[in-house]
Design brief:
Elements (H helix, E strand, L loop, with lengths): L1 E8 L2 E8 L1 H18 L12 H31 L9 E4 L8 E8 L13 E5 L5 H14 L2 E4 L11 E10 L2 E14 L7 H7 L7 E7 L13 E15 L5 H6 L5 H35 L6 H21 L11 H28 L6 H15 L3 H10 L3 H20 L1 E6 L2
Parallel strand pairs: 5-11
Antiparallel strand pairs: 1-2, 2-4, 3-4, 6-10, 7-8, 7-10, 9-10
Length: 429
Protein backbone atom coordinates (compact mmCIF):
# COMPACT_ATOMS: atom_id res chain seq x y z
CA UNK A 1 0.00 0.00 0.00
CA UNK A 2 1.37 3.39 -1.04
CA UNK A 3 0.83 6.33 1.36
CA UNK A 4 1.55 10.01 0.75
CA UNK A 5 0.65 12.84 3.16
CA UNK A 6 0.00 16.33 1.79
CA UNK A 7 -0.02 19.42 4.03
CA UNK A 8 -3.05 21.63 3.41
CA UNK A 9 -2.22 24.05 6.21
CA UNK A 10 -1.08 24.06 9.84
CA UNK A 11 -4.17 22.14 10.98
CA UNK A 12 -5.18 20.09 7.93
CA UNK A 13 -3.66 17.20 6.00
CA UNK A 14 -4.66 15.13 3.01
CA UNK A 15 -3.71 11.45 3.03
CA UNK A 16 -3.37 9.89 -0.42
CA UNK A 17 -3.74 6.10 -0.44
CA UNK A 18 -3.09 3.63 -3.27
CA UNK A 19 -4.39 0.12 -2.57
CA UNK A 20 -2.54 -2.49 -4.72
CA UNK A 21 -4.49 -4.49 -7.29
CA UNK A 22 -4.00 -7.82 -5.47
CA UNK A 23 -5.84 -6.42 -2.40
CA UNK A 24 -8.58 -5.08 -4.68
CA UNK A 25 -8.96 -8.47 -6.39
CA UNK A 26 -9.07 -10.32 -3.05
CA UNK A 27 -11.81 -8.03 -1.73
CA UNK A 28 -13.91 -8.29 -4.89
CA UNK A 29 -13.49 -12.07 -5.05
CA UNK A 30 -14.59 -12.37 -1.41
CA UNK A 31 -17.74 -10.35 -2.00
CA UNK A 32 -18.68 -12.41 -5.08
CA UNK A 33 -18.02 -15.61 -3.14
CA UNK A 34 -20.43 -14.50 -0.42
CA UNK A 35 -22.97 -13.39 -3.02
CA UNK A 36 -22.84 -16.79 -4.69
CA UNK A 37 -24.07 -18.35 -1.43
CA UNK A 38 -26.94 -15.95 -0.85
CA UNK A 39 -27.99 -14.36 -4.17
CA UNK A 40 -31.16 -15.43 -5.97
CA UNK A 41 -31.28 -15.32 -9.76
CA UNK A 42 -34.15 -16.87 -11.71
CA UNK A 43 -33.10 -20.07 -13.48
CA UNK A 44 -30.20 -20.86 -11.16
CA UNK A 45 -30.02 -22.86 -7.97
CA UNK A 46 -28.59 -21.10 -4.86
CA UNK A 47 -24.81 -21.50 -4.75
CA UNK A 48 -24.62 -22.48 -8.44
CA UNK A 49 -24.80 -19.04 -10.08
CA UNK A 50 -21.82 -18.38 -12.41
CA UNK A 51 -19.72 -15.32 -11.64
CA UNK A 52 -20.45 -13.69 -14.99
CA UNK A 53 -24.17 -13.86 -14.20
CA UNK A 54 -23.60 -12.33 -10.76
CA UNK A 55 -21.57 -9.56 -12.40
CA UNK A 56 -24.48 -8.79 -14.72
CA UNK A 57 -26.90 -8.29 -11.81
CA UNK A 58 -24.70 -7.18 -8.91
CA UNK A 59 -21.66 -5.33 -10.29
CA UNK A 60 -22.72 -1.93 -8.87
CA UNK A 61 -23.43 -3.46 -5.46
CA UNK A 62 -20.07 -5.28 -5.44
CA UNK A 63 -18.24 -2.09 -6.42
CA UNK A 64 -19.84 -0.08 -3.58
CA UNK A 65 -19.18 -2.82 -1.03
CA UNK A 66 -15.57 -3.24 -2.15
CA UNK A 67 -14.88 0.51 -1.96
CA UNK A 68 -16.38 0.69 1.54
CA UNK A 69 -14.41 -2.33 2.78
CA UNK A 70 -11.13 -1.30 1.19
CA UNK A 71 -11.28 2.14 2.79
CA UNK A 72 -12.41 0.73 6.14
CA UNK A 73 -9.66 -1.90 6.14
CA UNK A 74 -6.83 0.42 5.09
CA UNK A 75 -7.62 3.84 6.62
CA UNK A 76 -6.31 2.97 10.11
CA UNK A 77 -3.05 1.66 8.67
CA UNK A 78 -2.73 4.68 6.39
CA UNK A 79 -2.90 7.25 9.21
CA UNK A 80 -0.56 5.13 11.31
CA UNK A 81 2.00 4.76 8.50
CA UNK A 82 1.63 8.44 7.60
CA UNK A 83 2.07 9.41 11.27
CA UNK A 84 -1.13 11.47 11.21
CA UNK A 85 -3.31 11.92 14.32
CA UNK A 86 -6.71 13.18 13.11
CA UNK A 87 -8.97 15.24 15.39
CA UNK A 88 -11.90 15.08 12.93
CA UNK A 89 -13.76 12.56 10.84
CA UNK A 90 -12.16 12.15 7.39
CA UNK A 91 -13.63 13.76 4.28
CA UNK A 92 -13.18 10.99 1.72
CA UNK A 93 -12.68 11.19 -2.02
CA UNK A 94 -12.07 8.18 -4.27
CA UNK A 95 -11.53 7.26 -7.89
CA UNK A 96 -13.55 4.60 -9.69
CA UNK A 97 -12.87 1.02 -8.65
CA UNK A 98 -11.74 -1.16 -11.55
CA UNK A 99 -10.93 -4.83 -11.17
CA UNK A 100 -7.34 -5.53 -12.14
CA UNK A 101 -6.15 -2.02 -11.24
CA UNK A 102 -5.01 -0.34 -8.00
CA UNK A 103 -7.67 1.59 -6.08
CA UNK A 104 -6.94 5.20 -5.13
CA UNK A 105 -8.62 7.33 -2.48
CA UNK A 106 -7.79 10.31 -0.28
CA UNK A 107 -8.85 11.48 3.18
CA UNK A 108 -8.78 15.10 4.34
CA UNK A 109 -8.54 15.43 8.13
CA UNK A 110 -7.97 18.11 10.74
CA UNK A 111 -4.94 17.71 12.99
CA UNK A 112 -3.63 19.49 16.06
CA UNK A 113 -1.26 22.35 15.24
CA UNK A 114 2.39 21.88 16.11
CA UNK A 115 2.99 24.38 18.92
CA UNK A 116 6.11 24.78 21.02
CA UNK A 117 4.64 27.19 23.60
CA UNK A 118 7.06 29.83 24.82
CA UNK A 119 7.03 32.31 27.72
CA UNK A 120 4.75 30.20 29.88
CA UNK A 121 6.89 30.27 33.02
CA UNK A 122 6.90 33.34 35.26
CA UNK A 123 3.78 34.89 33.77
CA UNK A 124 3.04 38.27 35.46
CA UNK A 125 -0.32 38.26 37.25
CA UNK A 126 -2.21 40.57 39.59
CA UNK A 127 -4.39 39.21 42.37
CA UNK A 128 -7.11 40.93 44.36
CA UNK A 129 -6.82 40.82 48.12
CA UNK A 130 -9.20 38.52 49.94
CA UNK A 131 -11.41 40.81 51.97
CA UNK A 132 -14.76 39.83 53.49
CA UNK A 133 -17.09 42.72 54.33
CA UNK A 134 -19.45 42.72 57.31
CA UNK A 135 -22.48 43.12 55.04
CA UNK A 136 -21.51 39.90 53.20
CA UNK A 137 -21.62 37.97 56.47
CA UNK A 138 -24.95 39.62 57.30
CA UNK A 139 -26.37 38.62 53.90
CA UNK A 140 -25.30 35.00 54.43
CA UNK A 141 -26.90 35.02 57.91
CA UNK A 142 -30.11 36.36 56.34
CA UNK A 143 -30.10 33.45 53.90
CA UNK A 144 -29.74 30.99 56.77
CA UNK A 145 -32.57 32.73 58.64
CA UNK A 146 -34.85 32.43 55.63
CA UNK A 147 -34.00 28.76 55.19
CA UNK A 148 -35.08 28.07 58.78
CA UNK A 149 -38.09 30.37 58.80
CA UNK A 150 -41.53 29.07 59.81
CA UNK A 151 -44.87 29.96 58.24
CA UNK A 152 -47.61 31.27 60.51
CA UNK A 153 -51.25 31.72 59.46
CA UNK A 154 -52.37 35.33 59.94
CA UNK A 155 -55.72 36.63 61.19
CA UNK A 156 -58.53 37.57 58.78
CA UNK A 157 -57.94 41.30 59.29
CA UNK A 158 -54.36 41.03 57.95
CA UNK A 159 -53.82 41.93 54.25
CA UNK A 160 -51.31 40.33 51.86
CA UNK A 161 -47.88 41.99 51.77
CA UNK A 162 -44.42 41.34 50.34
CA UNK A 163 -42.82 38.15 51.64
CA UNK A 164 -46.12 36.42 52.49
CA UNK A 165 -47.07 32.94 51.33
CA UNK A 166 -50.64 32.95 50.02
CA UNK A 167 -52.88 29.94 49.30
CA UNK A 168 -55.20 30.69 46.39
CA UNK A 169 -57.83 29.14 44.14
CA UNK A 170 -57.66 30.41 40.58
CA UNK A 171 -59.27 30.10 37.19
CA UNK A 172 -57.62 31.71 34.15
CA UNK A 173 -59.05 32.49 30.72
CA UNK A 174 -57.61 33.76 27.45
CA UNK A 175 -60.11 35.59 25.24
CA UNK A 176 -62.81 34.35 27.59
CA UNK A 177 -61.87 30.66 27.23
CA UNK A 178 -60.23 28.44 29.88
CA UNK A 179 -56.83 26.99 28.99
CA UNK A 180 -54.78 23.99 30.02
CA UNK A 181 -53.06 24.53 33.37
CA UNK A 182 -55.08 27.69 34.04
CA UNK A 183 -57.04 26.28 37.00
CA UNK A 184 -55.87 25.34 40.48
CA UNK A 185 -56.85 25.05 44.14
CA UNK A 186 -54.83 25.76 47.28
CA UNK A 187 -51.84 26.84 45.19
CA UNK A 188 -49.02 28.43 47.19
CA UNK A 189 -47.63 31.77 45.98
CA UNK A 190 -44.68 33.57 47.61
CA UNK A 191 -45.29 37.27 47.11
CA UNK A 192 -42.41 39.26 45.61
CA UNK A 193 -40.33 36.41 44.18
CA UNK A 194 -41.74 36.30 40.66
CA UNK A 195 -41.66 32.51 40.71
CA UNK A 196 -45.30 32.32 39.64
CA UNK A 197 -45.91 35.70 37.97
CA UNK A 198 -44.96 39.21 39.10
CA UNK A 199 -48.29 40.48 37.70
CA UNK A 200 -50.23 37.93 39.75
CA UNK A 201 -48.18 38.55 42.90
CA UNK A 202 -48.58 42.34 42.65
CA UNK A 203 -52.30 41.87 42.10
CA UNK A 204 -52.57 39.94 45.37
CA UNK A 205 -50.87 42.60 47.52
CA UNK A 206 -53.46 44.25 49.80
CA UNK A 207 -56.00 41.42 49.50
CA UNK A 208 -57.66 39.90 52.57
CA UNK A 209 -58.45 36.29 53.41
CA UNK A 210 -61.50 35.00 51.41
CA UNK A 211 -61.36 38.06 49.14
CA UNK A 212 -61.88 37.46 45.39
CA UNK A 213 -59.99 39.46 42.77
CA UNK A 214 -59.70 39.65 39.01
CA UNK A 215 -56.06 39.93 37.96
CA UNK A 216 -54.69 40.40 34.44
CA UNK A 217 -51.29 38.95 33.55
CA UNK A 218 -49.21 38.72 30.39
CA UNK A 219 -47.21 35.54 29.93
CA UNK A 220 -43.52 36.00 29.08
CA UNK A 221 -42.33 35.48 25.52
CA UNK A 222 -40.15 32.55 26.67
CA UNK A 223 -42.92 30.76 28.61
CA UNK A 224 -42.36 27.01 28.76
CA UNK A 225 -45.84 26.41 27.26
CA UNK A 226 -45.38 27.75 23.74
CA UNK A 227 -49.10 28.33 23.14
CA UNK A 228 -49.20 30.71 26.13
CA UNK A 229 -46.05 32.71 25.27
CA UNK A 230 -46.79 36.43 25.06
CA UNK A 231 -50.54 35.91 25.64
CA UNK A 232 -52.70 38.07 27.96
CA UNK A 233 -54.84 36.16 30.48
CA UNK A 234 -57.46 37.10 33.07
CA UNK A 235 -57.51 35.22 36.38
CA UNK A 236 -60.33 34.99 38.88
CA UNK A 237 -58.49 34.50 42.18
CA UNK A 238 -59.75 33.74 45.69
CA UNK A 239 -57.42 34.10 48.68
CA UNK A 240 -57.81 31.05 50.91
CA UNK A 241 -55.11 31.68 53.49
CA UNK A 242 -52.33 34.14 54.25
CA UNK A 243 -49.16 32.88 55.90
CA UNK A 244 -46.38 35.17 57.06
CA UNK A 245 -42.77 34.13 57.32
CA UNK A 246 -41.51 34.16 60.91
CA UNK A 247 -37.73 34.35 61.08
CA UNK A 248 -35.88 32.75 64.01
CA UNK A 249 -33.89 35.22 66.15
CA UNK A 250 -30.20 35.45 65.35
CA UNK A 251 -28.78 34.24 68.64
CA UNK A 252 -26.66 31.46 70.11
CA UNK A 253 -29.60 29.03 70.06
CA UNK A 254 -30.07 29.56 66.33
CA UNK A 255 -26.33 29.06 65.80
CA UNK A 256 -26.50 25.73 67.66
CA UNK A 257 -29.45 24.63 65.50
CA UNK A 258 -27.32 25.08 62.38
CA UNK A 259 -24.27 23.30 63.79
CA UNK A 260 -22.18 26.00 65.48
CA UNK A 261 -21.34 26.55 69.15
CA UNK A 262 -22.43 30.20 69.25
CA UNK A 263 -23.46 33.10 67.02
CA UNK A 264 -19.87 34.36 67.13
CA UNK A 265 -18.64 30.93 66.06
CA UNK A 266 -21.23 30.85 63.24
CA UNK A 267 -20.08 34.26 61.96
CA UNK A 268 -16.47 33.05 62.06
CA UNK A 269 -17.44 29.94 60.11
CA UNK A 270 -19.29 32.03 57.51
CA UNK A 271 -16.30 34.34 57.17
CA UNK A 272 -14.09 31.32 56.49
CA UNK A 273 -16.52 30.00 53.84
CA UNK A 274 -16.66 33.40 52.13
CA UNK A 275 -12.87 33.66 52.17
CA UNK A 276 -12.57 30.23 50.56
CA UNK A 277 -15.12 31.16 47.89
CA UNK A 278 -13.22 34.37 47.13
CA UNK A 279 -9.93 32.45 47.08
CA UNK A 280 -11.32 30.06 44.45
CA UNK A 281 -12.71 32.97 42.43
CA UNK A 282 -9.37 34.81 42.56
CA UNK A 283 -7.56 31.63 41.49
CA UNK A 284 -9.85 31.39 38.46
CA UNK A 285 -9.08 35.02 37.62
CA UNK A 286 -5.33 34.35 37.89
CA UNK A 287 -5.61 31.25 35.72
CA UNK A 288 -7.44 33.29 33.08
CA UNK A 289 -4.72 35.96 33.22
CA UNK A 290 -2.10 33.26 32.63
CA UNK A 291 -3.98 31.73 29.72
CA UNK A 292 -4.64 35.13 28.13
CA UNK A 293 -0.92 35.96 28.38
CA UNK A 294 0.26 32.65 26.88
CA UNK A 295 -2.35 32.75 24.08
CA UNK A 296 -1.21 36.26 23.15
CA UNK A 297 2.47 35.20 23.16
CA UNK A 298 1.84 32.04 21.11
CA UNK A 299 -0.20 32.70 17.98
CA UNK A 300 -1.42 29.58 16.17
CA UNK A 301 -4.44 28.34 14.23
CA UNK A 302 -6.86 25.82 15.68
CA UNK A 303 -8.77 23.14 13.75
CA UNK A 304 -12.20 24.36 12.69
CA UNK A 305 -13.75 20.99 13.58
CA UNK A 306 -12.58 21.35 17.21
CA UNK A 307 -14.04 24.86 17.42
CA UNK A 308 -17.34 23.63 15.94
CA UNK A 309 -17.51 20.80 18.48
CA UNK A 310 -16.85 23.24 21.33
CA UNK A 311 -19.60 25.55 20.04
CA UNK A 312 -21.95 22.53 19.94
CA UNK A 313 -21.10 21.79 23.58
CA UNK A 314 -21.72 25.40 24.66
CA UNK A 315 -25.14 25.39 22.99
CA UNK A 316 -26.00 22.04 24.60
CA UNK A 317 -25.04 23.49 28.01
CA UNK A 318 -27.32 26.49 27.33
CA UNK A 319 -30.19 24.18 26.38
CA UNK A 320 -29.72 22.24 29.63
CA UNK A 321 -29.70 25.46 31.70
CA UNK A 322 -32.91 26.60 29.98
CA UNK A 323 -34.49 23.18 30.59
CA UNK A 324 -33.70 23.44 34.32
CA UNK A 325 -35.67 26.72 34.30
CA UNK A 326 -38.56 25.05 32.48
CA UNK A 327 -37.88 26.76 29.15
CA UNK A 328 -37.58 24.92 25.85
CA UNK A 329 -34.81 26.14 23.57
CA UNK A 330 -37.22 26.47 20.61
CA UNK A 331 -39.57 28.61 22.71
CA UNK A 332 -36.79 30.81 24.11
CA UNK A 333 -36.65 33.14 21.14
CA UNK A 334 -32.90 32.54 20.79
CA UNK A 335 -31.49 32.18 17.29
CA UNK A 336 -29.07 29.24 17.05
CA UNK A 337 -27.18 30.78 14.13
CA UNK A 338 -26.54 33.99 16.07
CA UNK A 339 -25.58 32.00 19.16
CA UNK A 340 -23.04 29.98 17.19
CA UNK A 341 -21.46 33.21 15.97
CA UNK A 342 -21.47 34.73 19.48
CA UNK A 343 -19.87 31.61 20.97
CA UNK A 344 -17.18 31.24 18.30
CA UNK A 345 -14.52 33.51 19.88
CA UNK A 346 -15.08 31.89 23.27
CA UNK A 347 -14.80 28.43 21.70
CA UNK A 348 -11.56 29.37 19.91
CA UNK A 349 -10.06 30.59 23.20
CA UNK A 350 -11.11 27.43 25.05
CA UNK A 351 -9.70 25.16 22.34
CA UNK A 352 -6.42 27.12 22.33
CA UNK A 353 -6.26 26.93 26.12
CA UNK A 354 -6.72 23.16 26.03
CA UNK A 355 -4.02 22.68 23.40
CA UNK A 356 -1.59 24.95 25.27
CA UNK A 357 -2.15 23.19 28.59
CA UNK A 358 -1.73 19.79 26.94
CA UNK A 359 1.60 20.90 25.42
CA UNK A 360 2.84 22.43 28.69
CA UNK A 361 1.93 19.20 30.50
CA UNK A 362 4.07 17.29 27.97
CA UNK A 363 7.00 19.69 28.30
CA UNK A 364 6.91 19.75 32.11
CA UNK A 365 5.99 16.08 32.48
CA UNK A 366 2.77 16.84 34.39
CA UNK A 367 0.69 13.68 34.71
CA UNK A 368 -2.37 12.37 36.52
CA UNK A 369 -1.93 9.38 38.80
CA UNK A 370 -4.61 6.71 39.28
CA UNK A 371 -4.90 7.79 42.94
CA UNK A 372 -5.91 11.29 41.82
CA UNK A 373 -8.69 9.89 39.63
CA UNK A 374 -9.84 7.80 42.60
CA UNK A 375 -9.87 10.92 44.81
CA UNK A 376 -12.00 12.79 42.26
CA UNK A 377 -14.45 9.87 42.14
CA UNK A 378 -14.70 10.09 45.93
CA UNK A 379 -15.26 13.86 45.75
CA UNK A 380 -18.01 13.49 43.11
CA UNK A 381 -19.64 10.76 45.19
CA UNK A 382 -19.77 13.03 48.27
CA UNK A 383 -21.09 15.96 46.25
CA UNK A 384 -23.83 13.95 44.50
CA UNK A 385 -24.71 11.76 47.50
CA UNK A 386 -23.77 8.55 45.69
CA UNK A 387 -21.38 5.70 46.41
CA UNK A 388 -17.91 5.69 44.91
CA UNK A 389 -18.75 2.53 42.91
CA UNK A 390 -21.87 4.16 41.43
CA UNK A 391 -19.89 7.17 40.21
CA UNK A 392 -17.11 5.02 38.76
CA UNK A 393 -19.63 2.74 37.03
CA UNK A 394 -21.36 5.77 35.44
CA UNK A 395 -18.10 7.21 34.13
CA UNK A 396 -16.97 3.82 32.79
CA UNK A 397 -20.31 3.04 31.13
CA UNK A 398 -20.41 6.41 29.35
CA UNK A 399 -16.70 6.39 28.38
CA UNK A 400 -16.05 9.52 30.46
CA UNK A 401 -12.97 8.38 32.40
CA UNK A 402 -10.55 9.79 29.81
CA UNK A 403 -12.48 13.08 29.80
CA UNK A 404 -12.16 13.24 33.58
CA UNK A 405 -8.43 12.49 33.36
CA UNK A 406 -8.02 15.27 30.76
CA UNK A 407 -9.88 17.70 33.04
CA UNK A 408 -7.64 16.78 35.99
CA UNK A 409 -4.54 17.20 33.81
CA UNK A 410 -5.65 20.71 32.81
CA UNK A 411 -6.30 21.61 36.46
CA UNK A 412 -2.87 20.32 37.55
CA UNK A 413 -1.12 22.12 34.72
CA UNK A 414 -2.88 25.39 35.59
CA UNK A 415 -1.83 24.99 39.22
CA UNK A 416 1.75 24.36 38.06
CA UNK A 417 1.69 27.56 35.98
CA UNK A 418 0.13 29.49 38.88
CA UNK A 419 2.95 28.43 41.21
CA UNK A 420 5.51 29.58 38.65
CA UNK A 421 3.75 32.90 37.96
CA UNK A 422 5.12 36.26 39.14
CA UNK A 423 2.65 38.14 41.30
CA UNK A 424 2.99 41.83 40.47
CA UNK A 425 1.31 43.13 43.63
CA UNK A 426 -2.31 42.99 44.71
CA UNK A 427 -5.36 45.00 43.83
CA UNK A 428 -7.98 46.21 46.26
CA UNK A 429 -11.35 44.56 46.30
Amino acid sequence: MDIRVEDLGPTRKKIHVVVPENMVKKEIDGIYLQLKKTAKVKGFRPGKIPRQILQRYYSDYVREQAISKLISNTYGGAISEGKVSPVSQPRLENEELTEGKPFKYSAVVDVNPEIEVKDYLGVPVKARRIRVQKNEITARLDQLQNLHAQLKTTGEERVVKEGDFVLIDFQGTIDGKPFKGGKGENASVEIGTGRVSMDLEKGLVGARCNEEREIEITFSEDHKERELAGKRAVFQVKVREIREKVLPPLDDEFAKDVGSESLKDLEKKIRGELEEEKRRQINRELENQILDFIIEKNAFEVPRSMVDRRVDTLIQELELNLAYRGVEFKASGLDEGQLREQYRNRAIREVKSGLILKRVAELEKVDVAEEEIDERFEEIARRTNQTRSQVEAYYSKNNLVENLKAQLLEEKTLQFLLKKAKRAGTQGQ
